[in-house]
Amino acid sequence: MGTAQLTAVPEPKYWHLRTVLLRAIDSEFTTGQVIPNERELSARFGVARATLRQALDQLELEGRLVRRRGIGTLVAAPRVGVPVSRREEGEAWQVVDCATAPASERLAGALGVAPGEAVHTVRRVRVEQGQTVATESLYLAAALLEQVPEIRLSGAPVAEGEELGRAVLRRLERLTVDGESRAVELGVAEAEEAALLQRPPGTPVLVVTTQYAAGGRLAALAVSTYRADTCRLTFGETGLVEVTPVSAVRTAS
Amino acid sequence: MGTAQLTAVPEPKYWHLRTVLLRAIDSEFTTGQVIPNERELSARFGVARATLRQALDQLELEGRLVRRRGIGTLVAAPRVGVPVSRREEGEAWQVVDCATAPASERLAGALGVAPGEAVHTVRRVRVEQGQTVATESLYLAAALLEQVPEIRLSGAPVAEGEELGRAVLRRLERLTVDGESRAVELGVAEAEEAALLQRPPGTPVLVVTTQYAAGGRLAALAVSTYRADTCRLTFGETGLVEVTPVSAVRTAS
C-alpha cells in the first residue's frame, strides 16, 4: 500500500474467457435470448467446464447473464435505473412490518440515543417493474416521534406491523427534515434480506445508508440493500435524460 | 420474477462459515492483526479447505479481510469514506494522461456528438490516505472546449499527456456547469483499470457515471471506478458528521 507498483497483474484464464464471451453476447444475441449450454460453450471456446462456469458466474454477477432453472442461461435485460432520493422514490416502497424494541448498544450509538431507548424499525421493500429490487430497515427513536402531532390511526387503538410502519413514516414526513446524507457501498445480502430479494444469501448488493437530519441532529437512519445485478442507482439534479448506462461507455474508447 | 415467492433460499455451507468467522473476527481480533492460517482455521471450525477458502474470499470481497503476500490474512481497516461531488473532491484527483481521438459510435451516442468528432479523454487516479482508490476517464467533445476562452499553457505550443489533461480540466471548470447527475452500479475492473488500482482484473468496483450539464445539454461524461473493497462513497448535504459505516448498523438489530 502507498508505494506505486504499476505493473499489470496477469489476466486469469476465466477473465479472458469472460471478455470473449461478452463480445459474443453483444454481437450474436439479444436480451432474453437463451445462450448455448455449458457443454456447447466449452467445446466452442476450447476451455474446461470449471473455467467456463467461473466466467459465466462472473457475467451473472455483472448482470449480463441470468440463469433460470429449467430454461437455461439468458442474456439479461439492461439494469434498471433506480432513483435514490426522498423526493423521487415516491410510491416505490411498500411497508412489510414494523417493530418497536430497545436499542442495542451499536444501534444506539449510530442513532445518537441512549442504549435501551425504544426504537421503531420499519421494514420496507421496493418494487420496480414487478421485481423486488431492494429491502430497507428504517430506524427511528420512538421518543422523537412523540414530539410530532399525533396522526389519527383509523380506529385501531394499538397499531402493529404494517399499520404501525405506515404511521411511523407519516409522522417522519411531518418532521422537518433539513437534509439527507448518503453512503453507498458494496455488501452482501444477509439471510433475511436475501429471502425478501428472492436471491441466495451472499448475493452482492449495493447498501445505501441514509441519515435524515432534523433541527441539526440525526432524526432517522435507513439502511437499504439494492440488488447489484439488476439495479443502477441514480442521483440526479440536472434534469437531463437518464444517465447513460455505463456499459455503453466503458467499452467504447 | 414478478410473483412473490417468500420462501428463504437454503444457506450455503461457506456462507454459514463466513458468518461464524465474522463474529470471531469482531470479538477476537483488531484491525491489522494477522488471523490464523488456513490449516489452523479449517481444523478449528471443522471444515474443508475449499469451503474455508470460499468464506475467506467472501470476507475479502466485503473488505473485512485483506491478504498480503508473505504476511498472511489480516483484519482490514474500515472502509474509507470517499466524498463524491465536484465540490468535495478537491485535490484528490491526479491527471495521468489525456488523449484526443475521433469518437466511436457508442461514445458519440453517449456524449451527444457526431461519430468521428474529436473527443478528449482525460484519465485520472484518485489517491486517499496514500492508496489509489479510484481511476476515471472523463470524456469531453473538443469542439465544446474551443468555445471557452483559451487558457495560456506555460510555453508549450502543443500540449500532450498530463499537461493537456490539466488544461482540459481547467477549461471544463470555466464552463458554467448547471448540474451533475450520477449513477452508481457494481462493476468489475477491466485490465487497464485493474493495473492502475493495483488489483487483479475482475476486482469488484463501484462504477460512478457522472453527466455534467451546461446550458441545458450534456457537456462532459466521466466514468469513475472505485475499489469496492476499501471505499464507501458518500453523498452529503446535511453537514452532519460522517455517515455511520453500515457494518455498525446492519448487525445491530
Using brief descriptors, characterize the structure shown:
two-stranded antiparallel ribbon; Arc Repressor Mutant, subunit A; 10 strands; Chorismate lyase; alpha+beta; homodimer; 253 residues; 9 helices; 2 domains; six-stranded antiparallel beta sheet
Within the CATH hierarchy, at the fold level, what is the topology of the largest domain in chain A? Chorismate lyase
Helix content of chain A: 25-40%
The number of helices of chain A is: 9
Oligomeric composition of the shown chains: homodimer
Q: Summarize the main sheet of chain A.
A: 6 strands, antiparallel
Look at the structure and give the CATH class of the largest domain in chain A: Alpha Beta
Number of strands of chain A: 10
Shape of chain A: elongated
Computed over alpha carbons, the radius of gyration of chain A is 22 Å
Unreliable spans of chain A are 1-8, 151-157
Structural class of chain A: alpha+beta
Going by CATH, what is the homologous superfamily of the largest domain in chain A?
A: Chorismate lyase-like
Average pLDDT figure of chain A: 81
Number of self-contained structural domains of chain A? 2
> How far is it from the N-terminal to the C-terminal residue of chain A, by CA?
30 Å
- Run of helices and strands of chain A: HHHEEEHEHEEHHEHEEEH
**Secondary-structure arrangement, i.e. CATH architecture of the largest domain in chain A:** 3-Layer(aba) Sandwich
Strand order of the largest sheet of chain A: 4-5-6-9-8-7
A few lines on this structure:
The structure is a homodimer of 253-residue chains. Helices cover 31% and strands 32% of the residues of chain A.
